[in-house]
Amino acid sequence: MLRWYPSILLRVVLELTFVPIAFVSIFAVKALADRSTPWSIGSWNGPGASPDFWYLTVLLALGWTMLVLGWRGAKVFFRYLIAVWHLGLAAGTASFIIGSRDLVVQGEAMGFSLSLGILAPAYSMFALIGTLVWIRKDSRRGNPTRSVSPLQRRNKLAAFGAGIGVIVGWIAFSNAFQQIGVIACLAATIACHEAMRPVNPSEELHKALVGEGSAPE
Fold this sequence. Notes:
Layout: E1 2-4, H1 8-33, E2 38-41, E3 44-47, H2 51-71, H3 76-98, E4 104-107, E5 112-115, H4 119-140, E6 147-148, H5 153-174, H6 178-196, H7 203-207, E7 214-216
Parallel strand pairs: 1-6
Antiparallel strand pairs: 1-7, 2-3, 2-4, 4-5
């Protein structure tokens, strides 16, 4: 019996996918905790939980679901989902450049304003290329049964830490401790991401890897 583990390429793709999701997740917690302060991400903006905010929540729900699917087996449906995700991300960021607009992320309460300019399209294109290369490699292997390492103590502790981080971030944002809120929510997103990862095999099992992402159970 072989357990499935994500290949190096898939891990890179998932890390690239995680970064913007984590970034927007912090804004989401901030918007819910402090509904009076303006924020903007590209063409989406508003004070707190404005109508545009709910578009972000749909994307975040999709993004986090995609990360779970990727780390917990990356089966056929995941291929289509991540391809659509990165195609949409690349197209969206490229449209700002083609339209001679600047992609700016801003949070007034935190005194934060970042112009992504060429960086965002370049980042999204790099992630898209990596995704398509992985999909091609994975498709060639067919659709074998993938037995993923069950959640271990490390995963559960990370999930607990993520919950604590969100609570601390919420309280900090609600009481105008913006920097503490950002740090707490950043730690929470990283912990949540870690909670999904299958526990890697030991060094001895790494040496016994068979094909991509497989190791003796």
